[in-house]
Amino acid sequence: MDRIGGETVPGSLADSRYQAYVPRPLPPDPPLAFDAGLVARLERANQALGRLDGMARMLPDPDLFLYHYVRKEALLSSQIEGTQSSLSDLLLFELHEAPGVPIDDVEEVSNYVAALNHGLERLRGGFPLSLRLLREIHAVLLRGGRGAKSTPGEFRRTQNWIGGRTPATASFVPPPPERLDECLHAFEQFLHLPHDVMPSLIKAALAHLQFETIHPFNDGNGRLGRLLIALILCEDKVLAEPSLYLSLYFKAHRSEYYDQLDRVRRTGDWETWLAFFLEGVEQTSTQAVDTARRILALFDADRLKLRSLGRKAASAGQVFEQFARRPVLGAPQIAAQLSLSPLTVRKALVELSKLGLINEITGQQRNRVWLYQDYYAILSEGASPL
Predict the structure, then answer these.
(1) Distances (CA, A) of 356 to 291, 323, 364
(2) Is CATH 1.20.1740.10 what the domain over 307-379 is classified as, yes or no?
(3) DSSP 262-285
C-alpha cells in the first residue's frame, strides 16, 4: 500500500530550524484495507461495546456506575499527562476535605469531569460535535489552576512541540500555526461524516489520532483527544452514556500507544493503529462489565450483613446506600441527603464500622471522613499515579 501520512514543512524559531508535520485530511487515501483480521477485531470490539452499553442500561442506578467511571477516566487521562493525583484525592476534593492534596493536580482532574459533562449536555441539546464545541470543552478543561495560562478555549497561534527543549530537538512538531486552519477545517468535516458512512469506532480511532497530530491547543490536547472518543460514540448513539474509557488501556500500553501514533505519521499505516485501538475497546469494555458485576455483587453481599443489626438496620441501610453512591463521605454530607438526625447518622456510621464495611480515615475526632474500603479498592484498580 502506498499511503503517505502527511508532509513535513520547514520552520524556524529563535534562529532554530526544524521540520513540522502537516497530516493529510481524513479519511485516509487510499482507503483503509480491512483484511479478515481487522474485520474480526472490529466485530469483537462492537460486541464488547454492546455488552457494556447493555450493562450500563440495566444497572439499578446507572448514574452511580457512570459517576465513578467518569472520575476514574478523568484521573487516568490526567495521569498520562503527569498529574500525581489519586482517586481518593479527587473524592476528598469534591468532599471539600483535601488537606495535603496537590491542588493544581486535583483541579485538573475535576475540570476533566466538568468538561465531559459540558460536552455531553451540549450534544444532548442538539449541538453538533464541532470545532466550536471543542473550544467550549477546552475552556472548561483548562479553567483555573495551571491551565488558565494556556489560553483556554482558543486555538494556538504559535508553534508547539512534544518532547525536547526546542522544536529542533522535539520528538514531534505539529502543524505550524499558519497551516492550522486548513487542518482543523478538514478535521471538522470528518467529524460530521454520518455513522452510516463510516463505523463509529473507526471514526473515533481516526479522529483521536488526527486530533493528537494536529495538537490545536497550547495545552490539554491529550486529555481532550481522549475525551473526544467518548463524545463521538455518544453523538453517534453507539453508547447511551459515556461508559467507554480507554485511558487505562493507553496508560498500561503507553509506549506502544506513542509508537502507534508515530508509525501512522511516518508511514500512513492506519490499519495497525486500528488493530491496537480496537483491541483496547474490547479489553476495556470487557473489564468495565466485569467491574460493574463485581460492584453489584459486593453491594448485595454487604446489604445482607446489615440484617444482623436488627432494629438499627433501617437507618444503617440508608447510610450504607449513600456510600454505595460515593465511597468517601463525612457525616454532614450524609445527613444532608437523608431525613435522619446527625446523631442517628453518627450512630449508623459506628455500626457500619463494626461490621467492617467502612473505616474512618482521618484519625480525628472532628470532621471525620469515612471510606467504604472494598468498594474503593475496586474503583481504584489501575489508578495509581505513574
Answers:
(1) 21, 13, 19
(2) no
(3) HHHHHH--HHHHHHHHHHHHHHHH
Ranges for all domains in the chain classified under CATH 1.10.10.10: 307-379
Question: What is the chain's alpha carbon radius of gyration, rounded to the nearest angstrom?
Answer: 23
For CATH 1.10.3290.10, the residue range(s) in the chain are 6-290
Whole-prediction pTM value? 0.89
Specify the residue for cell string 513535513: 8
Digitized pLDDT (tens) for each residue of the chain, 386 residues in all: 457 779 999 988 877 889 999 999 999 999 999 999 999 999 999 999 999 988 877 776 777 667 777 777 777 777 776 666 667 777 777 676 544 445 556 677 778 888 999 999 999 999 999 999 999 999 999 987 655 667 899 999 999 999 888 999 999 999 999 999 999 999 999 999 988 889 999 999 999 999 999 999 999 999 899 999 999 999 999 998 888 888 889 988 999 999 999 999 999 999 999 999 999 999 999 998 998 889 889 999 999 999 999 999 999 999 999 999 888 899 998 999 998 999 999 999 999 999 999 999 888 888 889 999 999 898 888 756 54
CB atoms within 10 A of CB 281: 25
CATH fold for domain 6-290: Fic-like fold (1.10.3290)
Those residues with Cβ within 8 angstroms of residue 352's Cβ, 6 or more apart along the chain or in another chain: 316, 319, 320, 323, 358, 370
Compute CA distances 159 → 82, 172, 180, 214, 281, whole Å: 22, 12, 10, 11, 33
Query: What is the spatial distance between Cα 51 and Cα 45, in angstroms, rounded to a whole number?
Result: 10
Residue 317 sits at φ, ψ, to 5 deg, of -65, -40
- Determine the Cα–Cα distance for residues 182 and 280; give it in Å rounded to an integer: 31
Per the CB < 8 A criterion, the answer to whether 19 and 169 are in contact is no
